[in-house]
Design brief:
By secondary structure, this protein is an alpha/beta fold. The chain has ten helices and 15 strands. Helices cover 36% and strands 23% of the residues. This is LysR family transcriptional regulator.
Amino acid sequence: MSTTPPPTEARPDQLWGQLHALSVIAQLGSFTKAAQRLGLSKAAVSQRIADLERQLGQSLVARTTRSVRLSEAGQRLVAETAAPLAQITAALGASRDAVGQPRGRLRLSAPVALGRQHLAPLLNRFCQAYPEIQIELDLSDRLVSLAQEGFDLAVRHCSAPPDSHVAVKLCDSRALLLASPAYLRQHPAPQSPEDLAEHACLAYLRPGPAQWLFERQDDGAEVERVKVQVQGPLRAGNSEILREAALSGLGLALLPDFSAAEALARGELVELLPDWRPVGFFGDAIYALRPWSSATSRPVQLLVAALREALAGGFAAAPNGTGQKKRPPSKPGER
């Protein structure tokens, strides 16, 4: 027998907060995470759901000791109200942005090395230009779930962005095989990928043995591929750690260009086997990703525009040691 009380007359003007809370619970599958997203206590979120269930006379959320899931009625209600809630959110955001400075909170996810070396200076300028926008930057090399973890935008290093998100390409990127001059004074530079088996190689930490794949296109337009199993004194899941190890002369490292550009520009690292392209280690481009929606908030639009402007030159080694081409200063987001 259901314990849900009979319905009371539901006033639409009182349901916005409850429906919004239900939609967030549907995304995150947790009262605790929903409370964090909404800036409320867990008790307040539970009370909103209880109020909604009482007004509708239906159980909307099934709670167990291990999980939270929506009932069939709850899933149907979330599905039927998703578009109207999104339209209301977009309309409120557009109305807010139309008056004065763009404002709001923006949660951003980015890889550690890319965020520390290239996004941090950009975000400093962006926050100065738009003081009413608050950015929460989460640096992690894991692939976060934007919708479930409440991120508005992610900067990703990948070759094929997911179809479920809106993707804006910011720039190309490539992997580089590098060594320090000190290491090369003690060891002959490899002349082919097969030579790497005789070198100390600093590999990115992934399951199984470290295997590096290279390819090049010969004069006959045929692609030649070589796979070599490598070994060395250190494997790590962060490109900055591998870069520092390579700088110390510990071995050869395969690094994304955004992590190695400054050291390469200063001559502290030397590129090896430039005719061969490392394949399958890192992404071919940097993308800005956001969950699909019918409208985009003004803060997200401005930040994506600023990212496109700042990273348009890519990460090729430049004489100024920044790893990017010099650009005239401009207000972030202005074209």
